[in-house]
């Protein structure tokens, strides 16, 4: 149950931070000027947001980070990521997963649309 609470809290934090980069809900200026969009580097965000080094390492090792970053940057709908803390990977490190298995698992940790908490 504690792990579930950690995942939910982490999801809420990342959803709030990612909302700054989502064009679908980006802040617009009050004048008739073009909308203002904010870019968030997902790797930098995961690096400073919490104990997500294991997840970030897997994202970079499999190049899934680029897929997620492209979704965040190049679509109007953004992305929602579910990021487990490093402690959640304790059991996973004992198993032998191929790079393909890890990539498939990582892709299940995101939705191709931004959802607010």
TrEMBL record:
Top-level taxon: Eukaryota
Keyword set, alphabetical order: Cell membrane, Glycoprotein, GPI-anchor, Lipoprotein, Membrane, Signal
GO BP terms in the entry: plant-type secondary cell wall biogenesis
Pfam families listed in its UniProt record: Fasciclin
Cellular localisation: Cell membrane
Leader sequence segment: 1-26
Domain FAS1: 39-117
Known role: May be a cell surface adhesion protein.
Family label: Belongs to the fasciclin-like AGP family.
Protein name listed in UniProt: FAS1 domain-containing protein
């Amino acid at each position: 149950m504690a792990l579930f609470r950690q995942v939910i809290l982490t999801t809420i934090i990342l959803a709030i931070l990612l909302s700054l980069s989502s064009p679908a809900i980006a802040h617009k200026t009050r004048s008739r000027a073009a909308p203002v969009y904010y870019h968030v580097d997902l790797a930098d965000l995961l690096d400073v947001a919490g104990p997500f080094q294991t997840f970030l390492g897997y994202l970079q090792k499999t190049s899934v980070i680029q897929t997620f970053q492209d979704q965040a940057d190049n679509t109007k709908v953004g992305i929602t990521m579910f990021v487990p803390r490093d402690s959640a990977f304790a059991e996973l490190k004992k198993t032998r997963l191929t790079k393909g298995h890890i990539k498939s698992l990582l892709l299940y940790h995101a939705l191709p649309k931004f959802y607010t908490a």
